[in-house]
Design a protein that fits this description.
The protein is α+β, with helices and mostly antiparallel strands. It is about 15% helix and about 40% strand. The protein folds into five domains: about 70 residues, no CATH class; about 110 residues, Immunoglobulins (Immunoglobulin-like), CATH 2.60.40.10; about 90 residues, Immunoglobulins (Immunoglobulin-like, Sandwich); about 80 residues, Sandwich (Immunoglobulin-like); about 90 residues, no CATH class. It contains eight helices and 31 strands.
């Protein structure tokens, strides 16, 4: 009985298949147990209502049944060649697809606005509003070309088309995402402070210009990756490097490399040179000098940037420069020479000091008589004018500045810095008229000591 029931059911399905019509050969499989039908290689023509009608036996009773099923055939979802397509501002891009068969129609739509970019169906493509002279359509593949893209072109582009696959029409659709970014135009290393000072904190900021999106930053020192330490730290996003108590060992060439969605840019070299000093100013030069000799003092100190040197002679600011030169040393040049090294960036100073005294050809230090003074003494002795010689001697003695005079400065009161009178000019006044011009420079104190009567001195000159 069961076998006869199965035979009747099979007969009913076979009768059903005969009324489906041509076009389904080799595409249909019937499951005689359930009555289900498998339809292969469906296309949009297969969409519609399928009616079934059969006979079954239930508990020995023959019964017929019927019904219908609606088949909806969606378009073939086509994956684009590249998704998303990432581009920089101003570039030309192609949204590329590869349909399974010959293309017969294609439409591209910009999803955010719903505006048709381009449509085509066996005739000339129709360009949508706002895309004229910017769009090309490959009618063979359906790929869309966009020129000079900008940020407003970013979005989802939907496509729908028709192709013929093995002679059968096929709908295709899909979408491509376009992302347009402004490129990184420049990267700069910005130090703070602008002039780093030793043992102070220095921050190096990586400033990125152009793109608002920075994927990553990377620091280099002397062309090699910068290695953080307990003293050198890098912020979470690597935008800032902090050097705590920056040292001379940190000197070098620093660069920041920034990566964006569409390009990578490395900054120009920032050359770090730590400012320091001055350290231990030193003053070189003689401690003693002969009358009328030349003397050069040199001041130096370790410093970045180079120091400004200021000279003080006996406490009075005199000159600037690394050297101080005296062409012809005289009594007034004795005393204290101080050099102050000053760094204009660190605002620090360092001082070195030296004293200069005069010495005679015999090596005796202190004020020295000039040649005129020595000549006067010799002449007085040979002439036997003891009284005049003594008178002149005591006159000179009385006119000498008193080292204990409270009106004199400390340098003038010291033994080495006593300003001795230029006695030679007094003696030369009683000589021939050839030295008269020197008398014009004599001190008024010595002029007061001269006798109006020159006959005695004239006698000595004969």
């Amino acid at each position: 009985m069961e076998n006869s029931q199965a035979a009747l059911l099979m007969l009913a399905f076979l009768l059903f298949l005969k009324v489906i019509g041509p076009g389904y050969e080799n595409r249909v499989t019937l499951d005689t147990s359930t009555g289900s039908v498998e339809l292969r290689s469906v296309n949009h023509k297969d969409a519609g209502m399928y009616v079934f009608d059969g006979i079954t036996i239930v508990s020995g009773i023959r019964e017929s049944f019927k019904g219908n099923i609606t088949l909806n055939v969606s378009a073939l979802v086509l994956k684009p060649v590249t998704d998303p397509v990432i581009s920089k501002d101003g570039d030309n891009v192609t949204l590329e697809i590869r349909p399974p068969g010959a293309l017969t129609a294609m439409t591209w739509t910009f999803s955010p606005t719903g505006i048709t970019v381009v449509s085509w169906s066996r005739s000339a493509p129709v360009i949508g509003t706002g895309y004229v002279n910017r769009v090309t359509l490959n009618t063979t593949t359906g790929s869309l070309g966009l020129s000079s893209v900008n940020g407003s072109d970013s979005g989802v582009y939907l496509f729908r088309g028709k192709t013929a696959v093995s002679g059968n029409p096929e709908d295709i659709d899909g979408n491509v995402t376009l992302e347009v970014y402004e490129p990184i135009t420049n990267v700069k290393v910005e130090p703070n402070p602008a002039q780093p000072i030793a043992n102070q904190t220095l921050k190096l900021a990586c400033q990125v210009l152009g793109s608002q999106i920075v994927s990553s930053r990377f620091w280099l020192k002397d062309g090699q990756p910068l290695v953080p330490t307990d003293r050198i730290t890098v912020s979470v996003n690597s935008s800032v490097v902090s050097l705590n108590k920056v040292l001379q060992s940190d000197n070098g060439e620093y660069q920041c490399k920034a990566n964006g969605p569409v390009n990578e840019v490395t900054s120009a070299v920032y050359k770090l040179e730590v400012n320091y000093g001055p350290e231990q100013a030193s003053l070189t030069g003689p401690d003693k000098a002969a009358l009328n000799s030349s003397v050069t003092f040199t001041c130096s100190a370790q410093s970045v940037p180079a120091c400004i040197y200021i000279w003080y002679v006996n406490g009075i600011q005199t000159a600037q420069g690394s050297q101080y030169q005296i062409d012809a040393v005289s009594n007034v040049d004795t005393g204290s020479y101080m050099c102050m090294a000053w760094n204009s960036v660190t605002r620090r100073t360092s001082i070195a000091e030296k004293k200069l005294v005069l010495f005679s050809v015999t090596g005796k230090e202190g004020p020295i008589l000039s040649a005129g003074e020595i000549t006067g003494v010799v002449i007085g002795t040979l002439a036997g004018v003891t009284g005049i010689a003594l008178g002149v001697y005591f006159s000179v003695k009385l006119c000498r500045k008193n080292p204990d005079d409270p009106k004199l400065g400390p340098a003038e009161r010291s033994l080495d810095a006593v300003t001795w009178p230029n006695a030679s000019e007094t003696y030369e006044n009683i000589a021939t008229d050839q030295t008269a011009s020197k008398a014009k420079k004599q001190d008024h104190a010595y002029t007061d000591l001269q006798s109006p009567d020159q006959s005695t001195y004239s006698t000595l000159n004969e």
